[in-house]
């Protein structure tokens, strides 16, 4: 199982280590640092490395490497999932998962890690349970603790640990009982030069924020559940009911959680909300090129496309660009050679356009690669797959909760090839 | 108010200050101090010196402080075992605490303190905790057994903890069950053969029940454990599958993959015609696709596993090609894996899409990825025949881009396409040749050379092209050298007239100037093939190439089966069985897929299989076509099979002769040299024993898919076998064969041997020998007609040979040879014929013609035939020459079992024109200094050492042409023993 964890900064500093079994010298990280050196870009470091005596499994999150060391055959996905869980927990506790924050809260971090893993076996990874045992640091509590000598470690066994619903603590009380569900869909798509869809799929999640007193038992039903052929659920969802009735029946954890994620595959037709007319060309001779991009709405179901941005990583030999946008602002980062165009709202009457010239280092050959255009956008009040929640029912408790469902569609990895 | 304040230090010495604070009376100050200590510990500072002070803080009712102290203890107890004992009492007391959290914390921490003295005290509390009323304590205790086992396995067994742990599998609480399974699995890993996890239908049922209720991590442990179970029949298998399937919808990808493993394994047992089997196949696809939308690290592991699944059951994902399309901002490790799977899924139905994608990828930024994409296009062409043409034109487009690495990769794959579809796309060769100069990578150069050699007859200036490569021969990498050698030999066989010089040049570069044993061996083999048997050479070198398989890097099936059983583990990421990388002697059990219902065939383990394959290689590679030979320029190359099937090579005589020709003499020189004179520089790193000539090395020229493809068709293992025949043994055979023909006075002449057996000569048997009589070299032959008809019109011709031997007149067979008649013929020879260096040096290829056919054979003449009568050197000249010839040219040999006095030896040698110039006696050892001269004017100087009473003579030869030394020694040996 997991033997040790090293936190390594973006630049290769090992700034925290935790061992759950015998201590492994931090020199083991040298293999990793070597691989990091070789990979160049930190995102390209292979997640599973083998050294003569250990296996190194790592993730890269928030400019940090979480590197775990194991000595025996373990399922690497188990380790990777756990590491992401650690990162999630840090984010949950400290607001962000960054080197500075971890260093500021190093003792809490240590307590958390000790609580999450015992001898390499996961112990408590549910944030509900953890928060009962180790309270997240808040300025108020620090002040109170200093004054009263109280501690931020819970003294009783978390109730969720052993019940049939380990994700929910007992005795939850709210004055305002509310349950909100956000249906968030991301479109991953690749469009080719001519605008034809090479590949498109929808990754959807339902994020829930449930603040309900007692032990509520909820049932969420959809207008068109047949859309969902590929789903993964939070452990609280009763799979049998889904299989037989296509409803989500569950006792929710307290607070924020991801109820389900789903995937509408490329077999179904995926609506593409925008189209891109583009022309990026480099002249065979001379050191310049032209760029002309127009974006327009396609299948938006009558909704407005907002927060539209366009990112174009230019070839390394590009020296500068001279571009004018009819709407929004356009910047060019000289070090990363990325053109970033913040369009804002897409107005169907007046389509945004970006055009201008690109200059290349003199003497450099015509770039071999074609830059891809990355689109980011947001459409409120729309689930592009067409998924709709029909109703939410609550059993087991008497009060009337406040219920709400929100839909939003975003661009995921939305790329246009040129 | 953050923890970073704990890192601020003063000048006075941190440790000193902390010590003071830890011993403070104020509770709050103490806690802050412990926090500071922990903070230092987390960044790897050594704060072990504070051990006693921290332990003193342990007895507190403040849980946070207690936890912090425990954290410290776990880290440093090992360095202070004596002090750690101080903590034991508190632990034991805490294990009795009414609060289950504290009980669990105590037993958990104790297990983490890896100090023997403490573990002794752990047993009793642990036993209690394993039976604790609170499941939280029990599940913590279960893990503690695994910890204790890691520290002291014997103790755990003696105390019976393993049995208690097994009982916990039946615990009422699913979390306890999951932890017990996890602990047992970990312990079982160090006891591969113990039956710790004794799975039977009852326990399986309990596990399946717990599976639904325990945490996600517990589900992983239980699923991995289930995967080790072998169901009794297909019904049990199906019911387990049904209960595991819901796990495919879990949000935790590790749970999903472990469930996939169980299903993939148990599916094997389901009958294929079962409806449920089809349903299950359909259910497997979506979760696998979903894994690909997770974080890149998870994607990577998932892709490595999908790679295995796709090979085992391609039907699962055959419609999901698009999800493997590469996004430009995928990390490179994900891109490469996706590409691999795209090729595996490529089929006629989706090839157009795949090709369009691949072409897109070939213009990406990342060089590694671009290369792999180009290669992938080639693999598509090979896999999907209908697409080959489009692939080739795509590749040509890419070559037009002139991007150096793209061109090189394209050429490498085009070579494979040529092999797969011969005579289809050769029109592109011209385009390829245009890029010859830009190739700087060995693999691309080798591929290009292969193409030129393979299609030499269509490329007008093939010889020029190859010659241009030859200039820097020694600077090329081995694969290019090997390829160049083969290509030039091919070229020679196709266009013999213009390229003789080229082939000789490359053969001598390969055999004489190279230090690489592979290259030299291949050179020798070609040389011998060409010199003894050009027809066979043609058959070997230009043989039909074995087809290259569609999938070039499929995992070997038995390994694949094992890896399928290890889905989700490190083995599945490395694509190696755990035994190949899991450390130490922990025997790892080879897992196997259960046989499907009704078919129980067993599969051999992969390693023994391949080993057997190597050793079973047929021991003879030289075809039994016979000892055909002929000057490629003068004699026709028609094999003797024109009028009938080749006679089977069964005669013992023939086999003996074959053996000699095959390798008894010619390729041996380096080996005895090595053993006798280690200082000899001619063979810097000759491997002394034949087994070192690994067949794969001999054959491995191009690497990748075309390993066998470079025209080295026949399995090359065999020549090594004949290398082993000791040289003297070979000669003895030679002498034994002929029977005792009287030895004439004067020059030694070996007895006659059968040169052409009747089986091969269509009834004509030729045996013969050579002799030097009165300064004339003679070939003495006995021709016997063993056929049923009369033979007439005899004629003879020699191939070019090392010393220019040629018949001085026509073969005098005046009367027709009737059946069963023998005739003795003496053919005078001269040494003015055309010269070509042969290997072995004294090899002579002869063609004899009669009214029936032309027969080819080769024989070896004793080099003493060529020792001329005026070979006696002046003493002074001898001395000067001896000094003048460098020691590098000296070769030393042993002549064993020679019972002659030095004088008798001297006389005997003189009869064969080896003249003794001087004699010296030192310490009872006679040193004879001798000289001899070959018909072509080469002088050989010798020092023969004869120790009285010792039958082993030592002869030391010096010559400006050291190649002849071996032959001269053989003559010494033969003369002295006859």
UniProtKB/TrEMBL annotation, chain A:
Keywords, A to Z, come to: Cytoplasmic vesicle, Golgi apparatus, Membrane, Protein transport, Transport
CDD domains under this entry?
AP3_Mu_N (cd14837)
Question: What residues form the membrane-spanning segments?
Answer: none
Q: Which cellular component terms (GO) are annotated to the entry?
A: clathrin adaptor complex; cytoplasmic vesicle membrane; Golgi apparatus
The compartments listed are: Cytoplasmic vesicle membrane; Golgi apparatus
Residue ranges constituting the MHD domain according to the UniProt record: 176-417
Q: Which GO terms describe its biological process?
A: intracellular protein transport; vesicle-mediated transport
Bilayer topology reads: Peripheral membrane protein
Matching Pfam families, A to Z?
A: Adap_comp_sub, Clat_adaptor_s
- Broad class of the protein's primary localization: membrane
Q: Which domain of life is it from?
A: Eukaryota
Q: Which family does it belong to?
A: Belongs to the adaptor complexes medium subunit family.
The protein in question is named MHD domain-containing protein
